């Protein structure tokens, strides 16, 4: 029996990316539910040291993020055949490249929007380790999807049902040029 090519998989393999507070978990979990695939929240893959550092208001550096990204990459690789959705900031191209080393067919959905909206959302989240004071550092680190990266850019301020509908209208994300969806 010949293996099924990844491009013929039954369900998509996606990373919902964006800064903290952009709605990755809410959107990603709902999209995964509607697609009938598992969801993973990248927050669950952080090391205790990484959580402590962010809780103290100190941004993670690339070295801090490496074991976290590898763990997310391993999760994606484990779901490459049957699909899955992971919510992960994936702020830099190099981070996305590392995830693609584990799962070459992964596509990205970038939830993007105004810093003011994100700051408000983060400030209103009870009990999360990421303080609003780190939002600006996330925007400074953010490298939007580039040509050659399969993905879709969505307005993070859109209602959840509209975001899911925009993804479904654009799927599959097989074109190597990022798309920007209208609301």
From TrEMBL:
Q: Which UniProt keywords apply?
A: ATP-binding, Gluconate utilization, Kinase, Nucleotide-binding, Transferase
Catalysed conversion reaction? D-gluconate + ATP = 6-phospho-D-gluconate + ADP + H(+)
The protein's Enzyme Commission number: 2.7.1.12
Q: Can you name a GO cellular component term?
A: cytoplasm
- Mind telling me which InterPro entries this protein's record contains? P-loop_NTPase (IPR027417), Shikimate/glucono_kinase (IPR031322), Therm_gnt_kin (IPR006001)
Family as reported in the entry's similarity comment: Belongs to the gluconokinase GntK/GntV family.
| Protein name as it appears in the record | Gluconokinase
The record lists the organism as Actinomadura macrotermitis
Its taxonomic path starts at: Bacteria, Bacillati, Actinomycetota, Actinomycetes, Streptosporangiales
